[in-house]
Specification:
By secondary structure, the chain is α+β, with helices and mostly antiparallel strands. Strand 2 and strand 3 form a beta hairpin. The protein is globular. InterPro entries: DUF5953 (IPR045997).
């Protein structure tokens, strides 16, 4: 379960994932992105910003919740980044 923003352990941790995600340099560091060995697929759809942040698309097409492949991509991303939404924090 995702936590409310005020319950996250640090302000730079994203509250949730979307189809298109912007992670500041601090947010990327907090979630452990990028890890070339683990994030090869995401890196094909990611762009580094001049400030050191990242813009990352989970799928090539906009997220469609009726598309099983898109739901799988969303699930894989949440599994890869358990800190997003504070899901790995003790309650």
């Amino acid at each position: 379960m995702l936590n409310l923003p005020e319950n996250l352990p640090a302000p730079e941790i994203p509250c949730f994932l979307g189809w298109l995600n912007y992670w500041s340099a601090a947010a990327a560091q907090a979630i452990g992105f990028p890890d070339p060995a683990r994030d090869a697929e995401l890196l094909t759809r990611a762009r580094r910003t001049p400030s050191g942040g990242w813009v990352v698309k989970l799928t090539d097409a906009p997220l469609d919740y009726d598309n099983p492949a898109h739901l799988d991509a969303l699930n894989r991303a949440y599994e890869r980044f358990p800190v997003i939404g504070g899901r790995d924090s003790p309650r």
